[in-house]
Amino acid sequence: MKKQDELFRLIKLEEKRQRDTLMMIPSENYTYPEVRAAVGSILMHKYAEGQPRRRYYQGNEIVDQVESLCEDRALEAFQLSPDKWSANVQPHSGCPANLAVYNAVLEVGDKIMSMYLPDGGHLSHGWQLPDKKVTLVSKIYNVEFYKLDPVTRLLDYNAIEEQAIKYKPKMMISGGTAYPREIDYKRLSKIAHRVGAYYLSDIAHEAGLIAAGACKSPFPYTDFVTMTTHKTLRGPRGAIIFCKKEFEEAIDFSIIPGLQGGPHLHSIAGIAVALEKTKTPEFKKYAFQTVKNAKELAKYFSEKGLDVVSDGTDKHLVLLDLRKNKTNGWVVAWALEAAGIVVNRNTVPNETATPFYPSGLRMGSPALTVRGMKEREMKLIAGWIYEIIQKYSNIQTPSEKDARKTFVSGFYKRIEKDKLLNDINKKVVSLCRKFPV
Ligand SMILES: Cc1ncc(COP(=O)(O)O)c(C=O)c1O
C-alpha cells in the first residue's frame, strides 16, 4: 500500500504543476471531468477485438453501442455523411493511426511524400536521416520530403507539384507539428491526384479548431484524414481515422488484425464525450478564442522585433526563431520553465542546430484559452516571455560534449537563483490562481 501512496502522491504533485504553471505546449490541453470519468470507467475491463457487431469476443452488446456512438459522433462533429465517409475510432494514438493508413493501401517499398520534419513535419510521416532510417515507416516505404520556401518559410505549392511529378509518390501527406499557417488542402489534393497518389491529411493538431470552424477543413478534398483526440479537440489520448467509404474495409482490416489487438473502449468512450462537446457554443467560443490568443502572442513578439516564423499564425501555435537573439530553444525553454511557463524547444525552417538544442521555441494557446484567458492575459504572458528571451540572449550551448556537460549543470543552477525568473514565477502563479483549471 505504501508504494501505491507514493504513486498517488506523484499524481497530486503533477496536478499542482498543471494548475500553477502556464501550459503552453501546443499539443497539450485540459480535458473535461466527464472525459476523465469515462476513461477511468469499467469499460477498461472489456476485450472487444473486431468491429461493432463483428467481434471475436463475447459480451459486447453494450460496448458495441459505445463504439458505434463514438463513430457516429465523429462523423457528425465534422459534418460528414455516413454514406460517403467512415470513422475508425480504435487507433491507440496518432502514430499508429498514420501507420494504419499506410498499411491499408500501400505495399512495401511504395513511395510516400511528406513534409520535412525540421520544417514542422511529423516523425510518423516517415522521418529518416540521409544515413539512417530512423522510423519503421521509413524502413518499410520509400520516403521523400518537401521543404518550406526558405525565404517565406511557407509551403511552396509550385515546388511541391514539381517534386511530386518527378517523384511520383503513391501517398502524399500534409500536416505537422509546427506549421503555423493554414494548409491549402485543395491544392495539395489536386497535386496528389494528378500524380495518382492518395492524399492523407493529418490534422492531429488542428482537429478541434476544424470541428469548430475556426480553421479550414480538409474533408472536401482528401481520401484519408487522421487526427489525435487529445490536442485542440480536448479529448483523452487517442486517434481517429476518417476515410472515404470505399476504404472502410481496408482501414478496419489494417487496424485489426493488421496492427492492433483489442480497442481501448474506455478511451473510445472518452473520445465520444469530447466529440459531443465540439457541438456546443462553448466549444466554438474556445476554438475561435484559441486562434485569437495565438495571433495576439505572435503580434506582440513581432512588434518587439523577434523573428516569428511565417510572420504570424492562423491557428493555435506560434514558432519563434531565436537565432537573431543569439540564443537557442534549449536555453530559453529551461529559463521559461523556471518561471512557470512551459513551452517546447523546437526546430525551425532552415535549421542549423540539432533537435535536442534547436534554434526555435514553439508555443500554443489552447490550454490557456480553456482556463478562460484572453488577449489581455496573452499580452501579459508574451511580455514575460519577451523579458526572459532578452535576458537569455547571447547565450549559446557549447557544441563540444564535455564543455556542454559543464555548461548544462551550471545553467540549471543559474536559472534556479535568477531573481527575474523567480519574480515572474510569482506573477505566473498568481495569474494561474485567477484562472483556475
Ligand atoms: C501531426 C501529428 N501527427 C501525429 C502525431 C502523433 O500522435 P501521438 O503522439 O498520439 O502518437 C502528432 C503528435 O504530436 C502530430 O503532431
Description:
Helix 5 (136-140) links the parallel strand 5 (111-115) and strand 6 (142-146). With 437 residues, the protein is of the alpha/beta class. It has a seven-stranded mixed β-sheet, with helices on both faces. It has a four-stranded antiparallel β-sheet with strand order 11-12-15-14. It has a two-stranded parallel sheet with strand order 1-13. The model has no long low-confidence stretch (mean pLDDT 97). The two termini are 30 Å apart. Helix 12 (329-338) packs parallel to helix 15 (401-417). The longest helix has 23 residues, at 281-303. The protein has two domains: 34-277, Type I PLP-dependent aspartate aminotransferase-like (Major domain) (Aspartate Aminotransferase, domain 2), CATH 3.40.640; 281-434, Alpha-Beta Complex (Aspartate Aminotransferase, domain 1), CATH 3.90.1150. It is built from 16 helices and 15 strands. It is globular, with a radius of gyration of 22 Å. Residues 27, 93-95, 122, 124, 175-177, 202, 204-205, 228 line the site of pyridoxal-5'-phosphate. Pyridoxal-5'-phosphate binds at residues 27, 93-95, 122, 124, 175-177, 202, 204-205, 228. It is an enzyme of class 2 (transferase). The modification N6-(pyridoxal phosphate)lysine is found at residue 231. Its cofactor is pyridoxal 5'-phosphate.
